[in-house]
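Bench log, entry 3. Co-assembly request; chain sequences pasted below exactly as received.
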Amino acid sequence: MSMAADQLSVTLTALADPTRRAILARLGRGEATVSELAEPFNLKLPTISKHLKVLQRAGLITQARKAQWRPCRLEPAPLKEVEEWVEGYRRFWEASHERLEELLRELQSEGQSKQEEKK
Amino acid sequence: MSMAADQLSVTLTALADPTRRAILARLGRGEATVSELAEPFNLKLPTISKHLKVLQRAGLITQARKAQWRPCRLEPAPLKEVEEWVEGYRRFWEASHERLEELLRELQSEGQSKQEEKK
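Structure output for the full assembly:
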């Protein structure tokens, strides 16, 4: 396996930051300019620009090339790739949920037999 | 928003590496010892140990405390959290898929009208 940065690794690195995920959540409500994005996070422009570059490189956002107003928009394709990857593990968390339910049923029936014994 | 490492950021950082994702895929096929994990990746033990520590800290794997044979196992709970987060964006990639289909239909009907014109 190559250790070079594959698309999924680049996407996950970009998403592994709460500010960048909050920027995506904001863009999920509609396009926004860089200064509109900087404001709610109380971030200086160089800081927000750095975060936006990471998101852009991952293909998670694009920035329109309109002259003055250059809004950023969410690009969902890399998120779909994350979803497809994580879906491959669904059976594991569903299985562990079933194990918990089974354990709970066992504990409940144990509790009941103890109650019966007392009678 | 706190910049401290939240669980989701820790999980995504752990997943943002192809070797660590390959280790999870291997553990998805069943428990394995550290040396069993090191072998297929041609990694030295210190390197694999470092990767396993990152996965352990994220709660993605646990290591049994049996005396000699200490197998690692996959823990799916953090993966479920990733899935729940990314599901929030499903409507965006589904919408963009619909836009592509619409575009395709437009191109096809354009092609058809050009064919009609030629007749």
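The beta strands of chain A are 61-63, 72-74. Chain A has a mean pLDDT of 88.
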